Amino acid sequence: MLPFYPKRISIWLVILSVTIITAITCELEDSSIQCPDPSTSGNDVDGLLFVSYESVMDVVCGMAYNLEELNNHPEAPEVVQYAAAETDGYYTLIMVDPDAPSRTNPTLRYILHWLITNLKGSDLQTGQHNTGDVIAPYHGPAPPLGSGPHRYYLLLFQQDGPLTDITPPSSTSNFDWIEFAKSYDLGMPVAFNMFTTENIL
């Protein structure tokens, strides 16, 4: 068992982690991160991050959402919850778009949309995220017109302890979240969610 895995890890999360490890070597191709089958699991899955926007209600992993609805409320999701978080633990949340400027030509992969460190596990258990250290403020989805569907990954990492002296990224484009995770010994994500949207106005 790899040292960064939680003690009680579900079979689905093992599969997810193997998928992401494979994705690292494959530069995260289109099929790199897969959601569990909502018909059999819903959002009640170890390793699935519960995310709720005021405008679209609860995010169902892998679901496509209307861009206008998402951007009616440009603030960050009201709720980001990981019920399995360790009460005394600390976590990092990263939101990225791997499909910039388009999925067929992702030369700007990854666009950073949100980065928070030192989220307290006790707050994540109840869905709060306003007590962490905001390294990059939230920016809502903004896919270019006609660029096709864009995926948005929300990745949660468990820290070994509080992080200090975090260097903010110089640009939101070409943000290497894998290297960031390595730099701060974050290991692999312990939870995630994702959705898609596109600009067809």
- How many whole angstroms does the radius of gyration measure? 16 Å
Number of domains: 1
Q: In total, how many beta strands?
A: 8
Q: Do you know the CATH architecture?
A: Alpha-Beta Complex
| CATH homologous superfamily caption | PEBP-like
User: Count the helices. How many?
Assistant: 5
The biggest sheet amounts to: 5 strands, antiparallel
The arrangement of helices and strands along the chain is HHEEHEEEHEEHE
Quick summary:
This protein has five helices and eight strands, in the order H-H-E-E-H-E-E-E-H-E-E-H-E.
Give the topology, please.
Blueprint: H1 11-25, H2 38-41, E1 50-53, E2 57-58, H3 67-71, E3 79-81, E4 90-97, E5 111-120, H4 121-124, E6 133-136, E7 150-159, H5 177-183, E8 191-197
Structural notes for this entry:
- With 201 residues, the protein is of the alpha+beta class.
- It has one domain: Alpha-Beta Complex (Phosphatidylethanolamine-binding Protein), CATH 3.90.280.10.
- Helix content is 17%, strand content 24%.
- It is built from five helices and eight strands; from the N terminus they run H-H-E-E-H-E-E-E-H-E-E-H-E.
- The strands form two sheets. A five-stranded antiparallel β-sheet has the order 6-5-4-7-8.
- Strand 1 and strand 2 form a beta hairpin.
- The longest helix has 15 residues.
- The protein is globular, with a radius of gyration of 16 Å.
- It starts with 10 loop residues before the first helix and ends with a strand.
- The N terminus is likely disordered.
